[in-house]
């Protein structure tokens, strides 16, 4: 195995789209940033040189970082951020993982332009894929473009805890496409040139801050073969649905009549509350090579689902299961469960300071996003170091994530949706640094229950440092007696990001066998920034090989307390 080395220079620059120059923070002057291409088992070394005015960390989304939590890249959880004019070198291995992952800044909204693909190929080469060998592989990054200074948005959000901003456009590989124009001149779109009969592996990543996406290519089908760097039983569909944080690898065969076919990525929106104008779709083009093109007909457009048809996401994700293959044996699902957690996801109103404030006084109240009615408070010093050095004071700062919500009610009653924060909030929420401790090796079962409390969104829940078996998902309220019987304990998909359906639930299991302090959060940026987050602290095991090693010698220190961006 090799050492793959990159230098990431983080810088600010102006980019022009939609006739507007926007200040963005980027790696090596490009959006998306560089692709990290490696072979399973390689070591990766990334020198981050921070030339931007922001505090930065880079997270390697989906990389398991076994016994390597120090390199997970979460500010004030695993590390002090890399300050302006400072450097830090991340080092990690990609042993035991194959497929598509990605990297992104874990600093509020800055990840909209600070991200890129990680591609991990098998040791035995492309002919050892457990699916037909593709002729070409294409990173396919869906994102959103914000014609505004997102660092300023992040600062405002930190004060008001309210996310009242909308993306200006959707993108494929950084291109807006011809549905957008600047004074009548169409924006460039992503073009995929294909040859008849050839097979293309699209490595699809949703890096958007804001939306789940529907993806279709006119006249073509996808065969989904992997998700979150885990192989899945091949599943053929004309619609891919992908939430922020997820990756989907899909084969597309150029088997249509030679010509031009639009590829459309459309953000989906929860049906209720229907208060905002839908975000615009982006489109790229799949075009057959000219040698084989008889004429120059108009491009064919796909028929898209309704923008509000969010049940499509539920169907798509319910169809995923793990691949059974001689070279890729199914990972056994642990039968014994040590800890059961039931976690409700919703919004709420909390006091700006302290536990008691006047509910009627708007100035004292902030909108928060919660798990079991508690919203995450950013710690002021990195939790991992406190955990490692047993700095006891820090433990008092943490609030244990409870096993269940404080109250049982009809979680998905649509009449709870109306947003008039004061009217319908069922109970006070509060703000605390939520943590849950797990003994090394414990098997944890979690049911995430979406609630209608002031939200009608799905929730892509992402766990750092571990993959989760997705046992079942359903619409409505989870019913333990009935729904446990439906668990797939044979070949459930393994995911690092699970989509909790809009007004539904998902049940997962994972083995807490990676010592460290791991972030667990919704991958919608506004939910994350508003506190739909907790940390999972996995204790050391009995041996050196099951314990967290010492921090890197050149680890950044916290010169200033600000954990987002400087004011
Ligand atoms: Cu991609 Cu903590 O996230």
Automatic annotation (TrEMBL):
Where mainly found?
secreted
Instruction: Quote any Pfam family the record assigns.
Output: Cu-oxidase
The record's section on PROSITE patterns has: MULTICOPPER_OXIDASE1, MULTICOPPER_OXIDASE2
What EC number(s) is this enzyme filed under? 1.10.3.2
Top-level taxonomic group? Eukaryota
- Keyword field: Apoplast, Copper, Lignin degradation, Metal-binding, Oxidoreductase, Repeat, Secreted, Signal
Q: How is the cofactor bound?
A: Binds 4 Cu cations per monomer.
Cofactor(s) of this protein = Cu cation
Q: Which reaction does it catalyse?
A: 4 hydroquinone + O2 = 4 benzosemiquinone + 2 H2O
Q: Which GO terms describe its molecular function?
A: copper ion binding; hydroquinone:oxygen oxidoreductase activity
Q: Give positions of region: Disordered.
A: 272-297
The Plastocyanin-like domain is annotated at: 10-123, 138-274, 402-540
A Gene Ontology biological process annotation? lignin catabolic process
Where does the UniProt annotation locate this protein? Answer: Secreted, Extracellular space, Apoplast
Q: What class of enzyme is it?
A: oxidoreductase
Q: Which GO terms describe its cellular component?
A: apoplast
Known role: Lignin degradation and detoxification of lignin-derived products.
User: Which protein family is named in the record?
Assistant: Belongs to the multicopper oxidase family.
The name under which this protein is listed is Laccase
Q: What organism does the record attribute this protein to?
A: Panicum hallii var. hallii
């Amino acid at each position: 195995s090799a050492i793959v080395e990159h230098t990431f220079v983080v810088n600010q620059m102006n980019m022009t789209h939609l006739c507007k120059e926007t200040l963005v923070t980027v790696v090596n002057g490009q959006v998306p940033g560089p692709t990290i291409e490696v072979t399973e088992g390689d070591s990766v070394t990334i020198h981050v040189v921070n030339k931007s005015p922001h505090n930065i960390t880079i997270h390697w989304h989906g990389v398991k970082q076994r016994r390597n939590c120090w390199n997970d890249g979460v500010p004030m959880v695993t590390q002090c951020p890399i300050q302006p004019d400072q450097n830090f070198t991340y080092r990690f291995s990609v042993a035991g993982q194959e497929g598509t992952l990605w990297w992104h800044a874990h600093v509020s909204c800055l990840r909209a332009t600070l991200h890129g693909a990680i591609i991990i190929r098998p040791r035995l080469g492309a002919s050892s894929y457990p699916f037909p060998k593709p002729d070409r592989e294409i990173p396919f990054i869906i994102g959103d473009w914000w014609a505004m200074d997102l660092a300023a948005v992040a600062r405002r959000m930190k004060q008001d805890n309210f996310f009242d901003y909308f993306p200006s456009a959707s993108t494929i590989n950084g291109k807006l496409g011809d549905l957008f124009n600047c004074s009548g001149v169409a924006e460039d779109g992503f073009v995929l040139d294909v040859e008849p009969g050839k097979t293309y592996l699209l490595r699809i990543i949703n890096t958007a801050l804001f939306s789940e996406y529907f993806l279709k290519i006119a006249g073509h089908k996808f065969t989904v073969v992997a998700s979150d760097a885990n192989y899945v039983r091949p599943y053929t569909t004309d619609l891919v649905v992908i939430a922020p944080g997820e990756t989907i690898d899909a084969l597309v065969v150029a088997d249509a009549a030679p010509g031009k076919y639009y590829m459309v990525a459309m953000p989906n929106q929860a049906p209720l509350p229907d208060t905002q104008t839908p975000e615009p779709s982006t489109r790229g083009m799949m075009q057959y090579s000219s040698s084989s093109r008889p004429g120059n007909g108009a491009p064919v457009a796909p028929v898209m689902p309704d923008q509000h048809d969010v049940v499509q996401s539920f169907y798509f994700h319910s169809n995923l299961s793990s691949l059974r293959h001689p070279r890729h044996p199914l990972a056994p699902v642990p039968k014994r469960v040590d800890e059961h957690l039931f976690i409700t996801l919703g919004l709420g109103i909390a006091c700006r300071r302290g536990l008691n404030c006047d509910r009627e006084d708007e100035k004292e109240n902030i909108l928060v996003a919660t798990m079991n009615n508690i919203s995450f408070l950013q710690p002021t010093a990195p939790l991992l170091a406190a955990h490692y050095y047993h700095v006891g004071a820090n433990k008092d700062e943490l609030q244990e994530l409870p096993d269940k919500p404080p109250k049982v009610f009809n979680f998905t009653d649509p009449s709870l949706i109306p947003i008039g924060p004061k009217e319908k909030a069922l109970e006070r929420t509060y703000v605390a640094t939520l943590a849950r401790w797990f003994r090394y090796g414990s098997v944890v079962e979690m049911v995430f229950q979406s609630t209608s409390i002031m939200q009608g969104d799905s929730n892509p829940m992402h766990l750092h440092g571990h993959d989760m078996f997705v046992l079942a998902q359903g619409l409505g309220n989870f019913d333990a007696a009935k729904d446990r019987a439906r668990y797939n304990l044979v070949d459930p998909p393994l995911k690092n990001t699970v989509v909790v359906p809009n007004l539904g639930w998902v049940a997962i299991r994972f083995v807490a066998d990676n010592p460290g302090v791991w972030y667990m959060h919704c991958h919608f940026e506004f939910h994350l920034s508003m506190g739909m987050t907790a940390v999972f602290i996995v204790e050391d095991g009995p041996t050196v090989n099951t314990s967290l090693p010492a921090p890197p010698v050149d680890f950044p220190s916290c010169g200033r307390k600000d954990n987002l961006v400087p004011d």
